[in-house]
Amino acid sequence: MATKKPATQSRIADNKKAAYNYFFEEKFEAGMVLEGWEVKSAREGKVQLTDGYVVVRNGELFLIGCQINPLHTASSHVNPDNVRTKKLLLKKDEIKRLISKVEQKGHTLVPINLHWKNGKIKCEIALAKGKAEHDKRDTIKDREGKREVERAMKSRTR
């Protein structure tokens, strides 16, 4: 009797800048409409999310600024555009709820990461609110404090 393997999730790309610049209120997992060469490039890890953002057009969500660099072995009949706008796939009720939240002042949709789920590429997006400058300084202070504690614990165990 064959047993199913558990679904593995491996990260393709992370947007570390997003956690520094925004507070995440809600997270969603969206499917993506991609071309074949984009999937192959994603397998090779040639994806950059740093400048990406999500917009709403005609009741649909689109990922803009996500850069997927084509492989040098790409087919000659394919004309790859590495910053092509990609459609995100969510349920209608989730999209409606997101649209109503994004219309509020200070809220935006930010891509957090791309990952594999059951053989498909998924984009984790977050409903986010921008951080003020003092909040960013607090984030840095907390991160450095944790790093110092880890160093002290590590040196103590030696």
From TrEMBL:
Entry keyword set:
Cytoplasm, RNA-binding
A single Gene Ontology MF term assigned here is: RNA binding
* Keyword RNA-binding attached: yes
Chief place of localization: cytoplasm
Q: Where in the cell is it found?
A: Cytoplasm
Q: Mind naming one GO cellular-component term on file for this protein?
A: cytosol
Concerning Pfam families, the annotation shows:
SmpB (PF01668)
The GO annotation for biological process reads: trans-translation; trans-translation-dependent protein tagging
Chain segments carrying region Disordered: 134-158
Transmembrane intervals: none
Keyword Cytoplasm attached: yes
Q: Which family does it belong to?
A: Belongs to the SmpB family.
The record's listing under PANTHER family reads:
SSRA-BINDING PROTEIN, TMRNA-BINDING COMPONENT OF TRANS-TRANSLATION TAGGING COMPLEX
Q: Function of this protein?
A: Required for rescue of stalled ribosomes mediated by trans-translation. Binds to transfer-messenger RNA (tmRNA), required for stable association of tmRNA with ribosomes. tmRNA and SmpB together mimic tRNA shape, replacing the anticodon stem-loop with SmpB. tmRNA is encoded by the ssrA gene; the 2 termini fold to resemble tRNA(Ala) and it encodes a 'tag peptide', a short internal open reading frame. During trans-translation Ala-aminoacylated tmRNA acts like a tRNA, entering the A-site of stalled ribosomes, displacing the stalled mRNA.
Its name, as the record gives it, is SsrA-binding protein
Organism of origin: Limnohabitans curvus
